[in-house]
Design brief:
Elements lengths: L3 E11 L5 E2 L4 E2 L2 E10 L4 E5 L7 H16 L7 H11 L7 H21 L4 H4 L7 E5 L9 H13 L4 E5 L4 H15 L4 E5 L6 H11 L6 E3 L7 H10 L4 E3 L6 H9 L5 E2 L9 H13 L3 E2 L5 H10 L5 E4 L7 E3 L2 E3 L2 E3 L9 E2 L1 H7 L6 E4 L1
Helix pairs in contact: 1-3, 2-3, 5-6, 7-8, 9-10
């Protein structure tokens, strides 16, 4: 092992390549803090996190002012100990989005460093359970699109090898059902249609809608209710045959435990950034495994492909490109499946020249011994 001697940080602001609108918001930017950690032997690990629209400067400030200085002199390989120590340092703001997202940037950098030192790809270092994971696409199912556009995009996705697609819901019920039915008629019975409500419904409305969606044979209803309404999810899950998916808005492993213990969901969508990094992500995935529940993570496909391949109960990776403008090579796709990189580390081919060009003015910091 070697001690940490240097922590660098910056932020880029990525604009979505397509218009993205769901039941509660429109995506106009994606602030992406990036952290590089160097140890005494000169090995470097790169990690990152993200926000949708706002909050990036707050994350970067927490890292620069509080978390990064506490890393100097620590043994880089003691990832679990570091994660727990940093969580305790920020206990006054945990559990919370900003703290978890900041922890994730550091934790992913430490795992990248560890994997590079071991000359192993992340999916092998973290478990090596699967060689490839099925892909579904989210890029064509946004709420503002008309039915014809959604149908056309889903047909193209099927022809490209995808075996599933997500359609946002939250229009008047009859419109949602008509849109979903049109997609089902176009792609046939062998193609998965997933739906996402982005926490827009009340319990009674979610139950009503889930029962209406059953006829279309959807793969799951994602975030039907506010994420803190566990009781509502229990009621919903007991009232419908549609699988209930949750996770992108949960920020700690105990929150997932509550959902799983109470049978309030049947799909876990744990997000590696929002849960606080790879260290807690793996714990949630294995916790879900003990309940015989599948993991289908939210967003961040460039990192989730390796994590999904590391565990046995991962079922899908969500195709929604994030890092194309910051990398020299994209995620490998074969026959509608995501293939984890064989390169040592996280498997992300960072383009540091592009990152330098796109760095937000005033966002850089350096902490060193």
């Amino acid at each position: 092992m070697a001690r940490i001697t240097r922590v660098e940080g910056l932020m880029v602001d990525l604009k979505p390549k397509v218009k993205r609108v769901d039941a509660i918001q429109s995506f106009v930017s994606q602030e992406t803090p990036i952290i590089r950690i160097t140890d005494a032997d000169g090995a470097v690990g790169t990690g990152y996190t993200y926000t949708i629209g706002t909050g990036g400067p707050a994350i970067l400030s927490l890292i620069e002012r509080t978390l990064a200085p506490a890393l100097i002199g620590r043994e880089a390989g003691e990832i679990e100990r570091i994660w727990r120590d940093l969580l305790f340092m920020t206990h006054a703001t945990a559990v919370g989005a900003i703290t978890s997202l900041a922890l994730a940037a550091i934790d992913t950098a430490l795992w990248d460093l560890k994997a590079r030192r071991a000359s192993l790809p992340l999916h092998i270092l973290a478990g090596g359970a699967q060689e490839r994971i099925r892909l579904y696409t989210t890029e064509g199912g946004w709420l503002h699109l008309d039915t014809a556009a959604i149908v056309d995009d889903t047909i193209r996705a099927k022809e490209s090898g995808f075996s599933g697609a997500k359609v946002k819901v939250g229009r008047p019920l009859h419109e949602d059902v008509a849109r979903l039915s049109a997609v089902r008629e176009a792609v046939g019975a062998g193609f998965e249609i997933f739906t996402d409500a982005n926490q827009a419904f009340s319990v009674d409305e979610a139950i009503r809608r889930a029962r209406a969606y059953e006829a279309v044979d959807i793969g799951w209803l994602e975030e039907p209710l506010p994420a803190d309404d566990v009781d509502g999810h229990v009621r919903l899950a007991a009232s419908t045959s549609v699988p209930v998916a949750v996770g992108e808005s949960l920020y700690s492993a105990p929150q997932f435990r509550d959902y799983l213990q109470r049978r309030a969901c049947s799909i876990v969508q744990v997000d590696v950034a929002r849960i606080g990094g790879i260290t807690p992500w793996l714990k949630v995935a294995h916790l879900a495994e003990t309940f015989n529940v599948a993991v289908c993570p939210h967003f961040l496909m460039e990192l989730h492909v390796a994590l999904c391949a590391a565990v046995p109960n991962a079922r899908w990776v969500e195709y929604i490109p994030q890092l194309d403008s910051l990398t020299t090579a994209g995620m490998r796709i074969e026959d509608g499946h995501a293939i984890p990189s064989a390169e040592a580390g996280l498997g992300i081919a960072w383009d540091f020249a592009a990152i330098d060009r796109m760095t937000v003015d005033g966002s850089r910091f350096l902490i060193q011994s």
